[in-house]
Specification:
- By secondary structure, the chain is α+β, with helices and mostly antiparallel strands.
- Helix content is 33%, strand content 17%.
- It is built from 25 helices and 25 strands.
- The strands form five sheets. Strands 2, 3, 4, 5, 6, 7, 9, 10, 11, 12, 13 and 14 form a twelve-stranded antiparallel beta sheet that branches. The chain has a five-stranded mixed beta sheet with strand order 18-17-19-23-20, covered by helices on one side.
- A hairpin with a 3-residue loop joins β6 and β7.
- α19 packs parallel to α23, α21 packs parallel to α24 and α23 packs parallel to α25.
Length: 850
């Protein structure tokens, strides 16, 4: 719930959506981190006079309060000291910063809640000259493994000196002289990007100056693998708009946060990585390797996953094919503040993944548990604990991020964000997509059991993200539409092979099919089990990721050849009609036609099913808008078939086509569907009684849907794809000329029939003309006042291909037909409308008229 990245939290379950530019097979996937280690050199410089270390017992006295972990923390009065053994100097330490308690009234979209991650860094403590220890941040964006005199490692180190972020005087040496004691009080009380808000998070919340007189250290506790730092920080805050920009003239106010910073010792020897495969949907961490390619450089991407290994005594059992429990279970705790009635369903959603891990050879590999109550040693903020964090928020969402080791992709922990109002969204979705098949959904307040099962489904989806899995928007496209109406088939297989798809509920099923929740709800499917097997199978016979690459490649290729339902379709593809959010089946036209039938069944029951005693018609307005939104989704699913380019990542061993165009017949089917269901006015959406009760403009509702579809069809990307298809194979291509001709025959049918043009059709025809004009005279891009943090996004254009010539010719031909029709049009409103659009076309074609 798709997250990123990136500090990729992307993974949101509900929206992600996702029209980012489609990645090619040679490109890296969406990243959770873009890092691999480069430099660990110790800074050198001339010796200077400095503050000499004192004897240990003069610094750490008997009055000190001490906490022992992977390093020791001492508290003396209001001062804090880190005692660092030499063994952890120059070791990689992961810093994870979170909001423990949020400031009242400070929200920015999905940010600003307790449990939110606000920063992440990898650091090292390293000795320097002049009795100092430096804290430096470690970047992993480039690497070189060959440390021989002729290798790249030495040269890379000379070009990759890591920044020193802070320095500390050595207050004392440890008693055994094998460590140093640092006074960190001033640093913990300061405002810095390492331990507290990252600059982006601070900017998004409008935080400016830290107010030191109202900020302090609450506690510092050491544990075997981590140290937890809790602070109270007060900032001046300038109120921000929804876009995150400061509101002009607004007065700053003071806001206070309780922050938690986790310092986690990363393994001395990183986990063996598993190289990313674009045919299996995992998040990844990436590096540029200067040694992997003997004649250049190579981008290395590693799948993000937990470390899962059998216990020593079970190794032979595992290798012989027996299920064994892992050395370390993956455990998710439920936030104690979560309403009690939802906890069992959240835990079920976690435990549902056990069956997938069994395909990788592990039983009881993952488990959900209630958080301990009354245990002072347990904390939700402790980086050793993964959790579903409940957020009392109006945000209708949930998201599943994870924190991983950038050197290997090993997931360290995860905090799933669970926003309270996700339930409203689930209710609306299930009402719209399933109420005609499930009488329990024919009301506004669902039973706890029904809502609990919806929560379970979302929990499973978000946990999937935290196991490393990306959205698989292509999964549902592998199912023939008619199978979605076959009760025995969906009972056995589900309506999509992956819970990581955005295929919410089986909206294709018709009431006469008698399909129940088993065939309506998503579940852990074939793809999910296979993807977990790929990522988590233990392969000790291979010493390195490079060694296992051939084995895994053959395994994936053979599996895909046997079972098409294992297909992965990226969520970032703008062109492939198989990879869509919220769609079902292998044919969007057939699936959408069934979906519209069910929407039509809801409309006459809308007022009855949304009625609540002593309430107005807000429920009816909400559900009507949801019906319209679902209808628009169907139109979007269909529209993407026009100009579609399918991308199927393969390896050379598979000997398969990577790119192919959507067949002409399917594109024509899509255009005909839009003519029948949308451009022919969908009068079933128009209800005078409903309008009198909820006040929604039904003319605007219909017009907005039509404009949206025209915007998808008559845009440079679609037209450029059609031109490319024609160049590639003229005999099989659906051409720009053909599409415009097909659209005109339906949208402008009154020009030949001479019938009056009603108000809905007049709006549609104006929208069509305006879409054509935008193609030949694109509007100037708006100048953004917001700071830019990356290169400008390239926009497709038709100015240098045949599409522009064809569009201009189409506009001229349309003008001629309109001119002829005006002379024979007796209806006054129709004649004025035709005169208007004729003038618009003329002005659009004449560059001298601005």
């Amino acid at each position: 719930m798709q997250p990123k990245l990136l500090l990729l939290i992307a993974v949101t379950f509900l929206f992600t959506a996702s029209d980012a530019q489609r990645r090619r097979p040679t490109e890296t996937p969406p990243m959770q981190s873009t890092t691999v280690k480069s430099d660990t050199t110790t800074p050198k410089g001339p010796q200077r006079n400095s503050k000499e270390p004192k004897p240990y017992d003069k610094v750490i006295t008997k009055e000190a309060s001490t906490s022992v972990g992977f390093f020791t923390v001492h508290k003396m009065d209001d001062n804090y000291f880190f005692e660092l053994p030499d063994s952890i100097l120059d070791r990689d330490i992961l810093i994870v910063n979170r909001i423990a308690k949020a400031a009242a009234g400070v929200r920015s979209g999905f940010s600003g809640y307790g449990g939110d991650q606000i920063g992440r860094q990898v650091i090292q403590f390293t000795k320097g000259p002049d009795n100092k220890v430096f804290l430096k941040t470690i970047s992993f964006s480039e690497t070189a493994s060959d440390s021989t005199p002729d290798g790249m490692y030495r040269s890379l180190m000379n070009s990759s000196l890591q920044p020193l972020e802070a320095s500390f005087d050595i207050a004392a040496y440890s008693k055994d002289k094998k460590g140093v004691v640092l006074d960190v009080t001033k640093y913990l009380n300061s405002d810095n990007d390492i331990l507290f808000f990252g600059s982006g998070a601070k900017r998004g919340l409008g935080l400016t100056q830290m107010l030191s007189d109202r900020s302090y250290i609450a506690s510092v506790k050491a544990f075997p693998l981590n140290v937890e730092i809790k602070t109270m920080k007060t900032y001046n805050r300038t109120p921000t708009s929804q876009t995150g920009s400061p509101i002009q003239g607004a007065s700053p106010t003071a806001v206070t946060f309780e922050l938690n910073s986790s310092m986690v010792m990363l393994p001395k020897v990183p986990m063996k990585p598993r190289y990313f495969d674009p045919r299996v949907g995992y998040f990844a961490t990436s590096t540029t390797d200067f040694d992997a390619n003997p004649q250049g450089i190579k981008r290395i991407s590693m799948a993000v996953r937990w470390r899962l290994e059998p216990k020593d005594e079970d190794v032979q059992k595992y290798l012989s094919g027996q299920l064994v429990e892992p050395r370390k279970q993956i455990v998710y705790y439920i936030d104690p503040t979560t309403p009690k009635k939802w906890i069992p369903y959240l835990i079920q959603g976690i435990n549902d993944w056990q069956v997938a891990f069994e395909q990788a050879g592990f039983k009881n590999a993952i488990v959900g548990k209630e958080a301990p109550v009354g245990d002072s040693t347990w904390s939700l903020d402790d980086a050793r604990h993964s959790a579903i964090v409940y957020k009392p928020s109006s945000v209708a969402n949930a998201s599943g991020p994870n924190v991983n080791d950038p050197r290997s992709g090993e997931i360290i922990e995860s905090h799933i964000n669970w926003y309270h109002n996700v339930m409203e969204l689930l209710r609306n979705w299930y009402f719209i997509q399933a109420a005609v098949n499930d009488v329990k959904a024919q009301k506004m307040v669902f039973s706890d059991e029904l809502m609990g099962q919806l929560i379970r489904f979302v929990s499973s989806h978000e946990v999937g993200h935290t196991l490393g899995l990306r959205h698989n928007f292509g999964s549902s496209s592998t199912i023939p539409v008619e199978k979605l109406r076959d009760k025995s088939w969906v009972d056995a297989h589900g309506h999509t092979p992956s819970i990581m798809d955005y295929a919410r509920f089986n909206y294709v099923a018709q009431p006469e099919d008698k399909i129940d929740e088993t065939g309506i709800f998503p579940r852990i499917g074939e793809y999910d089990k296979w993807a977990i097997q790929w990522g988590y199978q233990w392969l000790p016979q291979f010493k390195t990721a490079e060694d296992e690459k051939g084995f895994l490649n053959r395994q994936v290729s053979d599996s895909l050849a046997r079972n098409q339902r294992l297909f992965f379709g990226t969520e970032t593809d703008q062109n492939d009609p198989r990879n869509q959010s919220e769609d079902l089946g292998d044919n969007a036209m057939k699936a959408s036609a069934y979906g519209i039938k069910n929407l039509k069944r809801i409309m006459p029951n809308l007022l009855k099913w949304t009625k609540e005693s002593n309430e107005g018609y807000d429920n009816a307005a909400t559900i009507y808008k949801e019906i319209v939104s679902q209808f628009n989704r169907y139109m979007g699913h269909v529209s993407k078939n026009v100009g579609g380019i399918e991308w199927t990542p393969t390896t050379t061993e598979q000997d398969k086509i990577v790119y192919s165009y959507t067949p002409r017949e399917k594109q024509q089917e899509a255009i005909q569907f839009l003519q029948d269901q949308l451009f022919t006015t969908p009068k079933w959406l128009i209800d005078a009684k409903l309008f009198s009760l909820i006040g929604v403009s039904q003319l605007e509702t219909v017009s907005s849907a039509q404009k949206s579809a025209l915007g998808r069809l008559l845009n440079p990307r679609t037209l450029s794809n059609l031109v490319s298809f024609e160049m590639y194979d003229p005999s099989k291509a659906y051409t720009v000329t053909g599409m415009l001709s097909d659209l005109k025959s339906g949208i402008w049918s009154e020009l030949k029939t001479h019938r009056p043009i009603d108000i809905y059709r007049r709006d549609l025809q104006k929208a069509y003309v305006e879409s054509l004009i935008r193609l030949v005279k694109p509007p100037k891009a708006a100048v953004s006042t917001q700071p830019s943090f990356g290169p400008p996004m390239s926009q497709p254009t038709i100015s240098d291909n045949d599409a522009i010539s064809i569009v201009k010719g189409h506009m001229k031909a349309l003008m001629t037909e309109i001119r002829t029709a005006i002379a024979t049009t007796s209806d006054n409103a129709s004649r004025l409308h035709l005169q208007d659009v004729q003038e618009r076309l003329k002005n659009g074609l004449d560059p001298s008229i601005q």
